[in-house]
C-alpha cells in the first residue's frame, strides 16, 4: 500500500501549504537566501513579480503562466506577507509589476513575448556590467515593468506600438559605455539611434543608396528603357515623358484633362534611319503630294516631321503641338531654318482647336465640297499625326487615345467634316502596335463593327512599319488557316514586284522571309482548301524548343508528350475540317438545281450537328475566312488587299521603347446609301449605324438570323438580298451551317440589308428604332472581344 510522504518544513518551522487549484497562486518569499519559484501554470499571459532579497542574492523572475487571466501577487519586502492581487479581465491592455531591489543587486530582464514589434537595450548598471537585451514576446501588446527609482536600479524602457515612425535607445551616461543602436524593425519608416554625448562615439547608421543622376538613368536605362540615339538621350534628360498622371491645366475652362494626361505619355520617333527607310519605301506614293499643305499633329521632337517635309516639300507645314514649350527646342533643331514651318500650340484632337487652325491656314487655299456632291481625292493636303502612347490611358469612354482618334477619322470621312470637307485627304497615323489589329484585322475572328465601318469608308489601310510579333490575344482570335496567309503574302509579293517596290534590307517580316526561302509558295495557286488545315497555336514555339532539347535515347518529358498528343489530335481535326470545307465548296458550285444538291446538303448539315462544339467552332472560323478570301471581286479584309508588306521596326527606335506602328489611310467616296446622315436626309446612314450594332452583337450568326434580331418580320426579306447567295461577292447557296456569317459579309451584302430596310413598308420610324437600339453611350461592349472603336460619346462630349 502506498503511503503518503510528509511534506518538509521550511526554515521557519511552518509546514508548507498545499497549493490550491485556483487561478491565483501566491509567490513564496525567501529570507535565508534560498530561491523560491512560483509554479508555472498553463496558458499564462501575465508576468510574475520579482522576489525581494535582503541578503544580496539575485532574485529570479517568476516564470510565465500560460494564458492566465490573473495576475501574480506582489511581494512586500518588509513584512514578508503576501497580498492577494485583484484579478484582471481577460486580454488586459496593460499590466505592471514593480520590483524593489537593495543596492548591489541586479535585476534580471523580464522575458518578452515572441514577435514583439520593438527591441530595447538595457543600460549598464553601476557595477560596470553590460545588461542583456530583452528578448521578444510573441505578439505582445504589454509594457515591461517599471523600476522603482528609490532602489537605484534602472527601469526598462517602455516598448512602442507596431509600425512606429521612430525609435531611440539611450545608453546609461554614468557607466561611460557606448550605447548600441536599436536594431532595425520591418516596416519601420525611420530609425535613428541617438549618440551618447559623453562617450564621444557615434552609433552605426545604415547608409542610404546613392541616387543616380537623371543623365545616367537615361544612358543606362530609365524605367527599363534604353536610349539608343542622341535624340532619345536628350529626350530622357528633358523628362518630358512621364508614367505618372501629371496634368497641365488648359488655358481655358475645357474638359481636356483626360487628353492632356494621355498625351503626357506620348511615344516619340527618335530614329532618323527608320524615318529614311519609310520615306524610301513610300517614295512613289508620296510624289503626288509635292507642294501640298502639310498638317502635322503632335510632331514631338520633329524627327519624322523633318523626313516627311523633305520628301513632299510642302507649301506650308503647320505643326499643332499642345506641349509646344517643351518640344520647341527639339523642333527647331530638327527643322533647321525652314521658313514655311509654323508651330501652333493647340491640340488637334480637340474639335474647336482643329477647326480654328483649319480656318486660319487651310481654308484660304482650298474649297470645301458642296453637300450632295461626290467627294474626290485631294492630294494637295496631307495629314500626319502621332497618337501613340505608353502606357495607354483611357480617354473618356475609349480605351486609348489611338482608338478615339481612329473613330474620329472614320467619322470625318463619312460626314465630310474638318479636313475631309476639302476632299478625300490621306492620313499617315502613328499609333500603338496593338491598335493595328483593331483597325486592320488579319482574320474574321478579329473583325467587328468598327473594322467594317473602316472598310466602307477607306480605299485602303496599309501598315507601313510596325513590330513583327504575335501575342496571346492574337492567337486566341485568329483561327485562320495558315495556307490563306501564305496565299495572301504571295499575292502581295507579286504586287510589289509589279510596282517596283523593293523591301528594305534588314526590315523583312517573318512571312516575307518564308516566301523567299520557299519559291514554290510564290506561285499563283490555291493552297487553302487543298491542304490540311493549319492554325497557329501559342504553344508551337514551346514545342519546337522542347523537340530540339529532347534526347533520342531518353524518354520525352511529360510536357513534350502532352504537346505531341495535342498536335496529333489537331491534325486529325484538320483533316475532318478540310473534308467539310471541300464538301461546302462543291455544293456552292453545284447549285440548288442539281439533283444531288439536296441529299448532299442534308448530309453536310447532319454531320456538323453531330460534331463537338469546339470542333464546330473551328470549322465556322475556317469557313468564314475561306468565304471572305475567295470572293471573285477580291478579298473582303483590307489586310488581304495590301500592296506591300510592312517594314519591321524595333522598339528601341522610339522613346520610350514601346511597340509603335505607322498606318497609311486613304479614304474613298462612301456609298450614298451610307452617306445620308442627319435630319435633312432620309436617315439611311443613321439606320445603318444602328443595324450594324445589332448585327455585330453576335458576329458569328448568319445574316438571316441577324436580320431576324433587328426587327420582327424583317427576316422575311432575305429574298430581296440577292448577294447572300451570289458566290461572286462572297455569298453561298447552302443553307443551315453553310450560310454567310455577319463577320464574313462584304460591302455589297450589307448594302442589300440597308436597302431592303429602307424599302420595307412596315419598317418602324427612326426614333422608334433608336429607342430599341443597343446603348449608344460610347462603350464598346456591343462589339465582340471589346475590339471596337467605341461609340457616339464624341457627339455628346463635342470635342
UniProtKB/TrEMBL annotation:
<keyword id="KW-0489">Methyltransferase</keyword>
<comment type="function">
    <text>Mitochondrial transcription factor that confers selective promoter recognition on the core subunit of the yeast mitochondrial RNA polymerase. Interacts with DNA in a non-specific manner.</text>
</comment>
<feature type="compositionally biased region" description="Basic and acidic residues">
    <location>
        <begin position="8"/>
        <end position="17"/>
    </location>
</feature>
<keyword id="KW-0949">S-adenosyl-L-methionine</keyword>
<dbReference type="InterPro" id="IPR023165">
    <property type="entry name" value="rRNA_Ade_diMease-like_C"/>
</dbReference>
<feature type="region of interest" description="Disordered">
    <location>
        <begin position="1"/>
        <end position="227"/>
    </location>
</feature>
<keyword id="KW-0694">RNA-binding</keyword>
<feature type="compositionally biased region" description="Basic residues">
    <location>
        <begin position="208"/>
        <end position="217"/>
    </location>
</feature>
<protein>
    <recommendedName>
        <fullName>Mitochondrial transcription factor 1</fullName>
    </recommendedName>
</protein>
<keyword id="KW-0808">Transferase</keyword>
<dbReference type="InterPro" id="IPR001737">
    <property type="entry name" value="KsgA/Erm"/>
</dbReference>
<dbReference type="InterPro" id="IPR029063">
    <property type="entry name" value="SAM-dependent_MTases_sf"/>
</dbReference>
Amino acid at each position: 500500500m502506498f503511503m503518503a510522504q510528509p511534506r518538509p518544513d521550511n526554515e521557519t518551522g511552518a509546514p508548507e501549504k498545499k497549493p490550491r487549484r485556483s487561478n491565483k497562486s501566491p509567490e513564496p518569499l525567501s529570507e535565508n537566501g534560498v530561491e523560491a519559484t512560483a509554479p508555472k501554470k498553463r496558458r499564462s499571459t501575465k508576468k510574475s513579480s520579482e522576489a525581494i532579497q535582503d541578503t544580496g542574492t539575485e532574485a529570479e523572475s517568476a516564470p510565465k503562466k500560460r494564458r492566465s487571466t490573473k495576475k501574480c501577487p506582489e511581494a512586500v519586502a518588509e513584512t514578508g506577507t503576501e497580498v492577494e492581487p485583484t484579478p484582471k479581465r481577460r486580454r488586459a491592455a496593460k499590466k505592471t509589476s514593480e520590483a524593489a531591489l537593495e543596492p548591489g543587486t541586479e535585476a534580471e530582464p523580464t522575458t518578452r513575448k515572441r514577435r514583439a514589434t520593438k527591441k530595447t537595450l538595457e543600460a549598464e548598471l553601476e557595477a560596470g556590467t553590460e545588461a542583456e537585451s530583452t528578448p521578444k514576446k510573441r505578439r505582445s501588446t504589454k509594457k515591461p515593468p517599471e523600476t522603482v527609482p528609490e532602489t537605484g536600479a534602472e527601469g526598462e524602457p517602455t516598448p512602442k506600438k507596431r509600425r512606429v515612425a521612430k525609435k531611440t535607445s539611450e545608453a546609461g551616461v554614468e557607466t561611460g559605455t557606448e550605447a548600441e543602436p536599436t536594431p532595425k524593425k520591418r516596416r519601420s519608416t525611420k530609425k535613428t539611434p541617438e549618440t551618447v554625448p559623453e562617450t564621444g562615439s557615434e552609433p552605426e547608421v545604415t547608409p542610404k543608396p546613392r541616387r543616380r543622376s537623371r543623365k545616367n538613368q537615361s544612358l543606362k536605362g530609365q524605367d527599363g528603357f534604353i536610349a539608343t540615339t542622341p535624340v532619345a538621350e536628350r529626350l530622357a534628360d528633358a523628362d518630358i515623358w512621364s508614367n505618372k498622371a501629371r496634368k497641365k491645366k488648359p488655358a481655358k475652362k475645357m474638359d481636356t484633362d483626360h487628353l492632356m494626361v494621355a498625351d503626357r505619355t506620348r511615344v516619340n520617333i527618335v530614329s532618323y534611319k527608320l524615318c529614311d527607310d519609310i520615306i524610301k519605301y513610300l517614295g512613289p506614293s508620296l510624289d503626288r503630294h509635292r507642294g501640298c499643305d502639310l498638317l502635322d499633329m503632335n510632331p514631338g521632337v520633329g524627327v519624322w516631321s523633318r523626313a516627311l517635309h523633305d520628301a513632299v516639300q510642302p507649301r506650308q507645314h503647320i505643326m499643332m503641338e499642345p506641349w509646344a514649350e517643351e518640344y520647341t527646342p527639339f523642333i527647331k533643331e530638327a527643322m533647321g531654318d525652314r521658313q514655311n514651318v509654323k508651330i501652333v500650340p493647340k491640340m488637334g484632337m480637340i474639335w474647336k482647336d482643329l477647326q480654328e487652325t483649319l480656318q486660319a491656314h487651310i481654308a484660304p487655299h482650298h474649297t470645301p465640297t458642296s453637300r450632295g456632291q461626290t467627294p474626290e481625292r485631294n492630294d494637295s493636303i496631307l495629314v500626319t499625326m502621332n497618337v501613340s502612347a505608353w502606357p495607354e490611358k483611357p480617354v473618356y469612354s475609349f480605351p486609348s487615345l489611338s482608338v478615339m482618334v481612329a473613330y474620329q477619322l472614320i467619322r470625318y470621312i463619312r460626314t465630310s467634316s474638318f479636313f475631309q470637307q476639302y476632299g478625300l485627304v490621306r492620313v499617315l497615323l502613328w499609333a500603338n502596335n496593338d491598335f493595328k489589329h483593331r483597325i486592320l484585322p488579319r482574320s474574321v475572328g478579329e473583325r467587328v463593327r468598327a473594322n467594317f465601318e473602316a472598310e466602307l469608308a477607306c480605299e485602303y489601310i496599309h501598315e507601313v512599319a510596325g513590330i513583327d510579333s504575335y501575342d496571346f490575344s492574337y492567337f486566341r482570335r485568329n483561327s485562320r488557316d495558315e495556307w490563306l496567309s501564305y496565299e495572301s503574302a504571295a499575292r502581295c509579293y507579286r504586287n510589289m514586284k509589279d510596282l517596283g517596290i523593293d523591301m528594305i534590307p534588314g526590315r523583312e517580316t517573318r512571312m516575307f522571309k518564308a516566301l523567299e526561302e520557299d519559291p514554290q509558295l510564290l506561285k499563283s495557286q490555291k493552297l487553302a482548301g487543298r491542304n490540311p488545315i493549319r492554325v497557329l497555336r501559342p504553344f508551337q514555339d514551346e514545342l519546337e524548343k522542347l523537340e530540339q532539347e529532347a534526347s533520342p535515347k531518353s524518354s520525352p518529358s511529360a510536357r513534350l508528350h502532352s504537346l505531341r498528343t495535342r498536335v496529333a489530335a489537331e491534325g486529325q481535326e484538320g483533316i475532318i475540317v478540310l473534308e467539310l470545307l471541300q464538301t461546302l465548296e462543291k455544293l456552292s458550285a453545284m447549285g440548288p438545281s442539281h439533283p444531288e444538291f439536296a441529299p448532299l446538303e442534308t448530309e453536310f448539315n447532319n454531320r456538323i450537328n453531330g460534331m463537338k462544339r469546339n470542333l464546330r467552332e473551328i470549322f465556322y472560323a475556317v469557313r468564314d475566312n475561306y468565304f471572305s478570301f475567295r470572293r471573285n471581286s477580291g478579298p473582303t479584309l483590307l489586310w488581304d488587299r495590301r500592296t506591300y508588306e510592312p517594314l519591321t521596326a524595333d522598339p528601341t527606335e522610339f522613346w520610350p521603347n514601346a511597340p509603335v506602328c505607322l498606318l497609311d489611310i486613304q479614304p474613298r467616296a462612301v456609298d450614298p446609301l451610307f452617306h445620308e446622315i442627319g435630319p435633312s436626309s432620309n436617315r439611311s446612314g443613321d439606320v445603318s449605324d444602328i443595324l450594324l450594332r445589332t448585327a455585330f452583337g453576335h458576329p458569328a450568326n448568319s445574316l438571316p438570323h441577324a436580320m431576324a434580331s433587328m426587327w420582327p418580320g424583317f427576316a422575311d426579306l432575305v429574298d430581296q438580298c440577292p448577294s447572300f447567295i451570289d458566290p461572286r461577292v462572297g455569298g453561298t447557296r447552302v443553307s443551315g451551317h453553310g450560310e454567310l456569317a455577319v463577320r464574313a459579309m462584304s460591302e455589297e451584302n450589307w448594302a442589300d440589308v440597308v436597302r431592303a430596310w429602307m424599302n420595307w413598308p412596315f419598317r418602324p420610324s427612326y426614333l422608334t428604332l433608336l429607342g430599341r437600339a443597343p446603348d449608344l453611350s460610347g462603350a464598346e461592349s456591343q462589339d465582340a472581344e471589346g475590339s471596337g472603336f467605341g461609340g457616339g460619346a464624341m457627339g455628346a462630349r463635342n470635342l
